[in-house]
Amino acid sequence: MGDHGRDRHSSSTLHRSTADRTETEPVRTRWTPKPEQILILESIFNSGMVNPPKEETVRIRKLLEKFGAVGDANVFYWFQNRRSRSRRRQRQLQASLMVDPRAAPGVTQQAGSGVLPHEPPTSSSSSSSTSSNNSSFPCSSSASSSPSSYDFVMDDGSDDLFSMISSQTPFMCSSDVPRSHCQPGTITVFIDGVPSEVPMGPID
Amino acid sequence: MGDHGRDRHSSSTLHRSTADRTETEPVRTRWTPKPEQILILESIFNSGMVNPPKEETVRIRKLLEKFGAVGDANVFYWFQNRRSRSRRRQRQLQASLMVDPRAAPGVTQQAGSGVLPHEPPTSSSSSSSTSSNNSSFPCSSSASSSPSSYDFVMDDGSDDLFSMISSQTPFMCSSDVPRSHCQPGTITVFIDGVPSEVPMGPID
DNA sequence: TAACTATGAATGAAGG
DNA sequence: CCTTCATTCATAGTTA
């Protein structure tokens, strides 16, 4: 069982493959988000917007497109998976703790499905309260920080727009926020000096 | 009948999986349509019956049951999801074409952008909605002259297709092109040489 | 080289 | 009808 043969077409936009053959192979490679894109997505997610509406999704996509080809579907999937994964992680962790206080995440992988629960660090101080004191995102750049708005400064004009990212951030500073009811603010992302606002109104 | 007389979940038939976890665990396995079942479903869908009534749903279920456990709800959900997905795809495609200037007829293209699963705003979203584009596609294609039975002739089929049934079965594809409403006839599915008729009455 | 992990994409099932 | 959750498949990227 488990033999599905559904149409696996979709996706799109991807970087150049090793060698683009003129063959009829669409090379349906899946979208590989760039580090900058991941940063943006994570920041938005951690800002409380865990489920952006369509309008916001489109806007976010436009934002991400500045760093690489990406479609609305990719953004949509990203948020969906993010939410799902976060919840699942929490659930499994909780379940494990309930059953056995020292239930190690080690599992015996069985042939067939490789869905083994893997609980990485993070997710500790999760106060599921209406109060949101989420000050995640150590994006301590020289940019001024406005209340209720996150500033994101990127320098892609240079050769290495990655400098800012690898400057201090290990890779991804994501503290899974279960559901923060952030106040209506605005996520401001500065790209190449151009600020892009992503108003985060009613999250869901 | 105020409410749809359709029972929401009545999939009484479901196979058991490797239930060696907990004895009392129903394992709640979701229905995994077999390739043959998918073929039948797609055929019916592509034949124009995109929203079969309950009676037809039951009949289709009976048909599918020959290849594996399946409930009425599964069939119902399948059609519902299929319809939704098709519409979404179509909408997205149209939107993409409007935005994407490279609608080159040439194939072997890495697609434009990730098609999103949710409806794009298409024209600012404000105007009254539900402006269903009825034009659609020409309801012609290759159809048998038999007014009593309908043949499934799908194009595409470029994707990997499973090894059909043990008999000869018309190919199918994932192309979603629901004919608005072809002539009311009968959908005949040849299974193992045995024709099963599914009269398509009120299509939708 | 293969095996594993992380994650994007697809879809069944439900809720509204 | 539409959106959303949960489960699963497939694959890019990493590791032994």
UniProtKB/TrEMBL annotation, chains A, B:
GO terms for molecular function: DNA binding; DNA-binding transcription factor activity. It is found in: Nucleus. Residues 121-149 have a biased composition (Low complexity). Its main location: nucleus. GO terms for biological process: adventitious root development; plant organ formation. Residues 1-31, 89-149 are annotated as: Disordered. One of its GO terms (cellular component) is nucleus. Residues 26-90 bind DNA. Belongs to the WUS homeobox family. This is Homeobox domain-containing protein.
